[in-house]
């Protein structure tokens, strides 16, 4: 499998990156700048000549197998970037705000120099440590300091230095563009900079941004057949311009940025924007080098099934209008972007890319890059009991009676009906997708897919039939084949008000509980794609509350359970975090996806547009019977802020206890799937250092370990002290760290919590119990004081 480094060798790019030749011509400028963390090594004056590398035309790479194709249906051709006098073909007239950092081989900062504005091709002299092996990082921040400073940054700290996306993507003056160069192995000899093999060097700075140019033609034949181009869009663009994006080892090779980076839409051209583009669009984007897919032998198979899911792509949305004026067919023409070979999935810095696309026919049957949107209203006969959460295996469909609820009064949802008649304004007339995730963080496929119309018609994703009938009403939903994720669908009355909502947990995890014929060991064996657990404490022993019950092996909404492995990717660790809940509320809210508290816009509507969670101050919410419960039901994705108790702004009464704590019985507002519920605090009784060793950061079980470096703890639940042998998903349990929300804001992503259904009077206030396993390692495993205005992770126990 080809690596990114191999791809960059073409056209002398490696010479630009790693080999240097000193130029001694031009004016000489003396720079005297104090060192940061000065080394005890001998200092020496170095004279360098710094210029710009020529931009690379991606089409000039010699192709072994072209990434373009000649197709009568969907013709995508790599073409030379136009040689016109454009901003993408120019260099800045100066190296603006040039900074240099010298690092040792371990990435420790030795010297920082601020060289200011430097004329390209002039000699610059300054002092560096005289070392046989070191690293240098050059950054020209651009006119106006578009990129952040590298002053005081370690080599790893450069990962967090970004340039302004808003500024770069509006650049018409190339002087604003940041340029950079990282020399990973150089030595300083007699005032000269040399590569490790002793060759003198040139310093050629590279443009930080990628230039994309797309030209398209829509055939007259399609127009005559009543097809029209609805939208042209660039998806999966990294959100930030990082001067040194984090690398990650994957099956596609070393890629950057890594899988947990935030990706966003690059552009979506519709209506007048599409018309004014007139078949051509250019844009600056960050580098997105997603490796090589050796399995792809033809450009027709550069499809979602074979590429790295984080690969950027262009998509053309085409509608067909029937004789009755209705749009009866929608097609998605998708082409993944990369280099000039079928296997190359890389958009790299300092490179110009140009594609010419011809949309010729609507033959989606014979071209796998073209997908047909199924506009048929969902209708399922797979009826399941109604709870607030449905676990759905990708590629399946379900239906349920929305007025029923397994934890309601006589299995009726008492918020909607008394079992005989529907309550006022509770008749369901429509169902829509409130939000959904993608199946690989902020990249990949929507877990439910695209609706026919975001505003008016979601029937191809979620559909209501016989909504005016208590017994015959059915909501049908389907989950296409994806890697899994989460979604929230809601039922509306004729006034457009939400009357109830349901969480869809789309996962291949199928837990099995203990029954009269299935014991604990057998339940673990029969659980698909994971395990179920009984912890080593008294709650699961004979006479305990959960003696014949099991816990799920993961948090609610998580896409993975169990320890992912010492060398697992950040995405695999992130998949185990799950979502967070406000105690007493039935609907999930996203927490930390990547181990940080920076999450925003990681959920999407039925048209694939990123949406935000709404925060509403408690004082602005209308109250019913002195509380916000009715409002919360109608606003399932809104966070209540400005209060320590979202229910009634009072922690001195137990008015909200009934929401999750009904003397051990599952409630109408419990967020767990049918057959499961939020556990009692006793599940962590007696768990301590004697019977639950934890995973140390270095990958070993020890009695007093620490969190794993990627966030979380692995506990021995075998009941036998020491290290379980062999270590399996059945005798260990993984608890990931995750941020929680305080006043709506994510915080403390390095902390680990697990909430329970119980409430208690704590220092005069009613608070719920939780366990904190990140700092005190369960030596004091149960804590009081959880506020309902703050969200936490939960996991489910067998009902």
UniProtKB/TrEMBL annotation:
Domain of life according to the entry: Bacteria
Protein name: DUF4906 domain-containing protein
């Amino acid at each position: 499998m080809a690596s990114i480094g191999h791809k960059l060798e073409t056209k002398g790019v490696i010479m630009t990156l790693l080999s240097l030749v000193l130029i001694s011509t031009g004016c000489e400028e003396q720079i005297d700048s104090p060192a940061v963390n000065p080394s005890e090594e001998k200092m020496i004056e170095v004279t360098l000549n710094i210029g710009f590398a020529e931009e690379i035309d991606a089409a000039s790479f010699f192709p072994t197998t072209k990434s373009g194709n000649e197709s009568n249906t969907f013709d995508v051709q790599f073409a030379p970037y136009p040689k016109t006098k454009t901003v993408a073909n120019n260099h800045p007239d100066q190296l603006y705000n040039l900074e240099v950092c010298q690092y040792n081989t371990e990435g420790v900062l030795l010297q920082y120099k601020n060289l200011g504005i430097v004329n390209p091709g002039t000699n610059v002299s300054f002092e560096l440590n005289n070392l046989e092996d070191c690293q240098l990082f050059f950054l020209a921040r651009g006119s106006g300091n578009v990129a952040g400073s590298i002053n005081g940054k370690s080599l790893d700290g450069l990962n967090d230095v970004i340039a302004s996306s808003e500024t770069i993507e509006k650049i018409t003056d190339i002087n604003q563009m940041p340029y950079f160069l990282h020399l990973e192995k150089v030595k300083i000899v007699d005032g000269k900079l040399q590569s490790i093999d002793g060759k003198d060097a040139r310093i050629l700075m590279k443009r930080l941004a990628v230039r994309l140019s797309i030209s398209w033609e829509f055939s007259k034949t399609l127009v005559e057949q009543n097809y029209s181009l609805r939208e042209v869009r660039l998806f999966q663009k990294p959100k930030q311009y990082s001067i040194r994006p984090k690398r990650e080892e994957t099956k596609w090779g070393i890629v950057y940025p890594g899988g947990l980076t935030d990706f966003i839409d690059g552009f979506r051209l519709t209506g007048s924007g599409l018309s004014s583009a007139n078949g051509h669009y250019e844009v600056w984007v960050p580098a997105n080098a997603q490796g090589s897919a050796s399995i792809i032998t033809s450009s027709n198979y550069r499809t979602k099934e074979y590429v790295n899911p984080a690969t950027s792509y262009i998509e053309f949305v085409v509608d067909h209008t029937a004789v009755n004026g209705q749009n009866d067919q929608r097609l998605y023409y998708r082409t993944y972007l990369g280099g000039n070979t079928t296997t190359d999935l890389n958009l790299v810095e300092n490179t110009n890319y140009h594609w010419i696309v011809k949309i010729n026919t609507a033959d989606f049957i014979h071209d796998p890059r073209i997908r047909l949107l199924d506009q048929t209203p969902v209708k399922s006969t797979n009826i399941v009991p109604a709870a607030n959460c449905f676990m759905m295996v990708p590629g399946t469909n379900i239906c349920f009676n929305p007025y029923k609820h397994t934890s309601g009064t006589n299995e009726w949802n008492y918020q909607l009906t008394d079992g005989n008649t529907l309550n006022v304004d509770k008749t369901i007339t429509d169902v829509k997708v409130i939000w959904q995730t993608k199946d690989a963080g902020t990249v990949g496929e929507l877990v439910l897919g695209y609706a026919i119309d975001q505003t008016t018609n979601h029937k191809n994703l979620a559909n209501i039939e016989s909504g005016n009938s208590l017994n015959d009403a059915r909501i049908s939903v389907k989950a296409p084949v994806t890697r899994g994720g989460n979604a929230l669908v809601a039922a509306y009355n004729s006034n457009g008000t939400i009357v109830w909502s349901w969480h869809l947990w789309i996962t291949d995890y199928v837990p099995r509980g203990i029954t009269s014929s299935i014991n604990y060991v057998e339940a673990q064996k029969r659980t698909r794609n994971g395990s179920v657990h009984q912890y080593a404490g008294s709650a699961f022993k004979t006479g305990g509350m959960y003696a014949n019950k099991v816990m799920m092996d993961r948090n609610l909404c998580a896409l993975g359970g169990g320890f992912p492995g010492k060398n697992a990717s950040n995405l695999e660790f992130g998949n185990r975090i799950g979502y967070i809940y406000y105690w007493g509320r039935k609907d999930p809210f996203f927490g930390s996806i990547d181990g940080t508290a920076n999450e925003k816009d990681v959920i999407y509507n039925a048209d694939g547009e990123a949406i935000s969670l709404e925060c509403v101050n408690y004082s602005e919410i209308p109250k019913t019977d002195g509380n916000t419960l009715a409002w919360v039901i109608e606003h399932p994705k809104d966070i209540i802020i400005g209060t320590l108790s979202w229910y009634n702004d009072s922690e001195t009464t137990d008015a909200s206890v009934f929401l999750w704590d009904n003397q051990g019985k599952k409630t109408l507002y419990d967020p767990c799937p049918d057959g499961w519920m939020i556990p009692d605090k006793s599940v962590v009784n007696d768990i301590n250092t004697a019977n639950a060793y934890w995973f140390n950061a270095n990958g070993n079980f020890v009695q007093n370990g620490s969190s794993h470096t990627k966030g979380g703890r692995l506990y021995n639940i075998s009941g036998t002290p020491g290290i379980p042998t062999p270590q399996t998903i059945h005798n260990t349990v993984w608890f990931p760290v995750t941020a929680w929300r305080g006043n709506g804001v994510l915080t403390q992503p390095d902390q680990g919590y697990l909430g329970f259904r119980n409430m208690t009077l704590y220092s005069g206030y009613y608070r719920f119990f939780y366990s904190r396993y990140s700092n005190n390692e369960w030596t004091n495993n149960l804590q009081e004081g959880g506020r309902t205005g703050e969200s936490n992770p939960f996991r489910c126990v067998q009902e």
